[in-house]
Amino acid sequence: MKVMILGADGYLGWALSLRLMARGHDVVGVDNFATRKSVAEVGSDSAIPILGMEDRIKAAKDIHGFKMRFHEGDVTRYEFIHKALKEEKPDTVVHFAEQRSAPYSMINAQHAAYTMQNNIVGTINLIYAMMDVNPSMHVVKMATMGEYGTPNFDIPESAFVEVEINGKKDRITTPKFAGSWYHWTKVHDTNNLLLANKIWKTTVTNIFQGPVYGTRTKEITDEKLHTRCDFDEVWGTVVNRFAVEAVLGIPLTAYGAGGQIRGYLSLEDSVDALSLLIENPAQKGEHRTVNQFVELLSINEIAEIVKKAAKKEGIDAKIDHIENPRVEADKHYYNPEVKVLPGLGFRPKLKMSDLAAQLIADLLPYKARIEKFRDRIMPHTRWTRTENAR
Amino acid sequence: MKVMILGADGYLGWALSLRLMARGHDVVGVDNFATRKSVAEVGSDSAIPILGMEDRIKAAKDIHGFKMRFHEGDVTRYEFIHKALKEEKPDTVVHFAEQRSAPYSMINAQHAAYTMQNNIVGTINLIYAMMDVNPSMHVVKMATMGEYGTPNFDIPESAFVEVEINGKKDRITTPKFAGSWYHWTKVHDTNNLLLANKIWKTTVTNIFQGPVYGTRTKEITDEKLHTRCDFDEVWGTVVNRFAVEAVLGIPLTAYGAGGQIRGYLSLEDSVDALSLLIENPAQKGEHRTVNQFVELLSINEIAEIVKKAAKKEGIDAKIDHIENPRVEADKHYYNPEVKVLPGLGFRPKLKMSDLAAQLIADLLPYKARIEKFRDRIMPHTRWTRTENAR
User: Fold this and answer.
1) Is the Cβ–Cβ distance between B66 and B21 less than 8 Å?
2) Residue A193: CATH number of its domain
3) Total number of domains in chain A
4) Choosing among B110, B168, B177, B334, which should be mutated to test the A contact, i.e. which has the most A CBs within 10 A?
5) DSSP code at position A326
C-alpha cells in the first residue's frame, strides 16, 4: 500500500513511517519541520538527539534496508499539498501535520491564531486536494480524546449520537468541549470533516487518541533511528516529562490534585494501532470514528508508576503537586468506549508499569544534554493569562 | 455609550452605525472593505449604489449631523485591532467583520481556507485584544441561526443544554450542525468564545440571527445614505434576490422544493434589536445567547409574498423551482426559542408582507444598473462541486 504521512518528521510520524516500511508499505513523508522550529522557539529540544530528515532516511536504509521518499513543504499551502498528492497518488494519507501542543496554543494571541490557521487550513486543503486527485483516498486523521473534555456520558466511538433534549429526540454530533485553543482546532477539524463526508462522501478514519509515551518501537533499534522525545512544559506530555524529571533528580510535577484521568498508550502500541487502521481502511464514503488508548490512568497513578520505575534505576523520585496551569476538572467521570481497534485484532503489548523503567533507562545517557533545558520544565504557560512569558 | 463596529461598511454594519448615532452613541467604524472587493471578485455589485466610506460619513454628517470616526484595517492583523481598541477604548465592540457568504466559502479550497482563517482568527484577535485593553468590554458577536442547521429539537436561547445520552445526563453545548464552511466558521467562533468565557470570564452577546432583508431603516432617508444590497447567487440572501428577480421580470428562483424554513427579519428590525442588545449589555462575565428573527417562513411562502408584492408594482412574477445548489433538507422541523429580545422590549415593526412592495419599489429605479449583472443571479456555486466556476 502506498501511504503518505503528513508530519513524518514528528514523534509519531517518524515512528509510524518506520513501522509501515517494516510492514512492506511504500511510504512517502511530508513535513515542514514546524515542530523542530517551534520547540527551539520556546528554548527547548528533544531529550534524545534526533538526526535531520535526510540523515534519518539514510539511516533507515542502512540499518533496515527501508526506502522512503520525502517532500519538504507546508500543507497550509494548497498548491504544495495538491502537487504532492498528484505526483505520489497514495492510497492512504495520514494527517499528523498539525500544531500539537495545547500550551503552545495558549502562549498569546499570535500562537492561538497560528494554531487555528495551521490546523484548520491544513485539513481543509488536504480534503480539497484529495477530492481533486482521488476522491476515494483514505484519510487517516489524528484527532484527540481531548476534543471530548471530561463528559459525564460514556464517550461512544461514533461521530453521531442519539439524544433527548427537552423531550425531543435527535441525532447530534457526539458532544465535545475542548480545554485549549489547540484542542478546539481538533474539534473544528472533526466538524469540518463531517461536512465533507456529508456533501462529498469522503473516506476518513478520525482517531481520538490519548497521550502517547515512550521512546521505542520495534524498529527503533539504533540511536540513529530515534524519534523525538519532548519533555518541556510546552511540548512534553506528562509521562515523558515525569521520566525526564526522575532522570534529573527533581520532583515529578503533578498539576493540581492529580485526579485528572486520561487514556494513555505507548508509542509501540500507537504505531501498531495506526498500522491496523491503515491496513483495514474505512469503507468507501465512511467517516469512521476510533477511540485509541490502552489504559485509563490518573496523574497520581502515573506519578506513582514513574516513581516506582525510577527506584529500579536507583533514583529516589519525589512527587510534588503544583498549581495547575490549565483550567480543567481534576475529579471527573471518564468512560470512553473502545471497540473498533479490538475488533480489528488490536492487542496492546505494553502497560505503563512495564515500560516506565525502560523509558527512564533510555533517557539516562542524555542526562547532561537534558540538564541544559532544566528551566524549561516548570509550567510558565498559564491558561488564565493572555500573554505568557516564554 | 462608545461603540466600535467592526465591519461598519457592510449591509448591517452601516445601517447599525447610523442607528446608534441617531440614538446618541459615539460610533467608531472599522472595515477593510473585504465585502466590496469580494463582491467585485465574483463579477457583481450592490443593486443600489453606495458611496465610499469617506463620502458616506460626510453624508451622514450633512444630512443628520452625525459624527463618526473610522479606522481602515483588518481584524486578522492583531496589532491593528489591538491599537484600534487601545486608542478608542469603546464600551462595546460589535463584531461583524467576517466573510458572510456561504456560497463564497464553497467556491473552492482557497475560498474555504480564506473564510476559515478570516473569521476564526479575527474573533480570536478581538478577544485577546479586548482582554488586554479592557477585559470587561462587551463584545456583541454576530453568529447565525445557520449554526444549528435544522434540528428536531427546539433550539433554546442558551449556550448549553441538558441532555441524556445512553442513560447518562450531562450539560453540553447546544448541538450544532452547519451546512457550509462559512456556517461552520461561525460554530467554531461560538465554541472558541465559550472557552474564552470559561477561562477569562469574557462578556459576550452571541447573536444567532436569521436572514435579513430590505433596504431601509429610519435613518436611510437619502440615497447618499443607502447601505449595500446584494442579490447575486454568491452574496444575495433570498428575499433581496427574489425582489431583484421581480424587478428584472425574470422568474423568482426557489432552490429545490422550497420547503426550507428559516427565521427572517427586516433590516429595520435587525438594527432595532441590535441597539437593544447593545444598550442592555450582558452581565459582566456572562456569555449571553440570543436568537434574533421575526417570522418563520418557508422559501415557498417568501416567493408568494414577493410575487404578490410585485403585482402591486405592476409586475407579473413567476416562480421557478430550480435544482438546489446546496445540500440541505427541504422538509424539516424548525422551532427556535425567542425570549431574550422580547424580554428587553423588542417589538417587531414590520412583516415581510408589509415590506416586500417597498423593497421592489426601492429597487425599480436601479433596474438598468442591475440588468448588467443579470448573469450573476442563477446559482453557479454548487455544494457538491469542489471547484466552482466564478
Assistant:
1) yes
2) 3.40.50.720
3) 1
4) B177
5) S
